[in-house]
Specification:
Layout: E1 5-9, H1 13-24, E2 28-32, H2 36-43, H3 54-61, E3 72-75, H4 78-84, E4 87-90, H5 106-115, E5 123-127, H6 135-146, E6 153-157, H7 167-172, E7 177-180, H8 184-194, E8 204-207, H9 209-240, H10 244-252, H11 273-286, H12 294-317, E9 326-330, H13 345-355, E10 359-363, H14 368-374, E11 379-380, H15 384-388, E12 393-396, H16 401-404, H17 408-414, E13 419-422, H18 429-434, E14 438-441
Parallel strand pairs: 1-2, 1-4, 2-3, 4-5, 5-6, 7-8, 9-10, 9-12, 10-11, 12-13, 13-14
This protein binds uridine-5'-diphosphate-xylopyranose (UDX).
Uridine-5'-diphosphate-xylopyranose is lined by residues 161-164, 220, 223, 227, 261-263, 265, 267-270, 272-273, 334-335.
Protein name: UDP-glucose 6-dehydrogenase
EC number: 1.1.1.22
Keywords: NAD, Oxidoreductase
Length: 447
């Protein structure tokens, strides 16, 4: 049984999953959040967001739940967390600043400022949030100035690469563990945290602080670039009558390129990739090397063009205007297996069509509640079939598995016009066309 005690500060996608995973690995864990309602949910073994497998893990470990190991508890108290933990993981959000590209560090800064004055015994503070390079060194100084235990409290940076929808799996079986450290003691503590049977086998890379911070932003910049690359190819395919899906398939067989992240469509969204590439550009500017990342401006604008193009295709399909036309939208979240609608291309397209006068009805298997909070004026249906009733066009915008299993014939019975636009290129054109639908995709031939 591991002897280190762990606190996890922030219980969003990252923190809630990390806390539960650490308990699964055998640690005594205390999760902290300043939002009482999240703590209440977690104490009851409920996840504050939809994430496959997370509630099972919570129920297995949250103290007070019948049959649980009791290894996982939650609090809103910083003094309690400081007293409890040997290793404190900072997992709070780093959103985009309103009206700018830069990262809003206020949540990380507040977490450190709230924790550090209570650290009166040796401890390691480990940042996991995605931050602009240089933040860790700055926060290390802040901690040194505030912690009563002085040099016995150190800072390390250990970025997290989890994907929503796969958060539990990615946390328990990470592709790699990156540990930005400034001392052997910090490195050996982090090695101890990850020296568990489950995380064994993942490469462990000890680096300096800036490199650790950069691994995360560079990874997200690379992934975004890959998606925008294939979406640029989709623009070319559309102009030249090529098929971007076949192109991507053929490209992917080259091991140096690979098949992953080559799905063309309405582009990337979510709480990470869009804001991370913008924050990266802003930070490069501050460092005086903005030219190194000007290509990311292009990556961002190719991505945003995809949403505009989907709207253009819809308008075209409906004879030049969407005014008064009924449009069924399948999907509101930024990706399947998540209820997250942050910077969701699907919801953005739905909202823009609504603002252009279309009668939009949205169906999403898990994201309706969050979508309604952002866009209360849209109509929401409880099933794909209900959304499609009377529709002049159906838009497939998030590739939930259930949309791939829809029966085109049954859907065809309820719509006004059998017209479908596939914004994710995951439906089978042959199946839909055979059932009498006009199928249009992004970057693929029209028939
Ligand atoms: C991403 C990174 O993958 C993860 O490593 C990091 O820790 C956080 O950011 P996430 O935001 O959960 O994870 O989603 P991801 O699976 O990367 O997808 C991001 C967006 O790209 C989604 O909107 C998705 O639909 C889109 N996407 C992905 C494409 O449009 N095409 C693809 O080929 C892949």
């Amino acid at each position: 049984m591991p002897s280190l005690k762990i606190t996890v500060i922030g219980t969003g996608y990252l923190g809630a999953t990390h806390a539960a995973a650490m308990a699964e690995l055998g640690f005594e864990v205390l999760g902290l959040d300043i939002a009482e309602e999240k703590i209440d949910l977690l104490r009851a073994g409920r996840a504050p967001m939809y994430e496959p497998g997370l509630e099972d893990l919570l129920r297995r470990h949250v103290a007070g739940i019948e049959g649980s190991t009791g290894r996982l508890r939650f609090t809103t108290s910083y003094p309690e967390a400081a007293e409890f933990g040997d290793v404190h993981f900072i997992c709070v959000t780093t959103p985009q600043k309103a009206g700018e590209y830069a990262c809003d560090m206020s949540y990380v800064d507040a977490a450190v400022a709230s924790l550090a004055p209570h650290l009166s015994r040796p401890a390691l503070v480990v940042g996991k949030s995605t931050v602009p390079v240089g933040s860790a060194a700055r926060l290390g100084q802040v901690i040194a100035g505030l912690a009563p235990a002085g040099p016995d409290v150190e800072l390390a940076w250990n970025p997290e690469f989890l994907r929503e929808g796969f958060a539990v799996q990615d946390t328990l079986r990470p592709d790699r563990i990156v540990a930005g450290v400034t001392s052997e003691r910090a490195e050996s503590l982090l090695r101890e945290v990850y020296a568990t049977p489950i995380a064994e086998g993942s490469p462990f890379l000890a680096t300096d602080l800036p490199t650790a911070e950069l691994v995360k932003t560079a990874a997200n910049a690379f992934l975004s670039t890959k998606i925008s690359f294939i979406n640029a190819m989709a623009e070319i395919c559309e102009a030249a009558d090529g098929d971007v899906v076949r192109l991507a398939e053929a490209l992917g067989y080259d091991d140096r390129i690979g098949h992953k992240f080559l799905r063309a469509g309405i582009g990337f969204g979510g709480g990470c990739l869009p804001k991370d590439i913008r924050a990266f550009m802003a930070r490069a500017g501050e460092l005086g090397v903005d030219q190194a990342l000007t290509f990311l401006r292009e990556v961002d604008s190719i991505n945003m063009r995809r949403r505009a193009h989907m709207i253009e295709l819809t308008r075209e399909a409906l004879g030049g205007s969407v005014l008064g036309r009924r449009i069924a939208i399948l999907g509101a979240t930024f990706k399947p297996d998540s209820d997250d609608v942050r910077d969701s291309p699907a919801l953005n397209v739905a909202g823009q069509l609504h603002l252009q006068g279309a009668q939009v009805t949205v169906y999403d298997p898990k994201g309706t509640e969050n979508a309604r909070a952002v866009f209360p004026t849209l109509r929401y249906a409880d099933t794909a079939l209900a959304a499609a009733v009377g529709a002049d066009a159906v838009l497939h915008l998030t590739e939930w598995r259930e949309f791939g299993e829809l029966d085109p014939a049954a859907l065809g019975e309820v719509v006004t016009e059998r017209r479908i636009l596939d914004g994710r290129n995951t439906l089978d054109p042959a199946v839909w066309r055979k059932a009498g639908w006009t199928y249009r995709a992004m970057g693929r031939p029209t028939a």
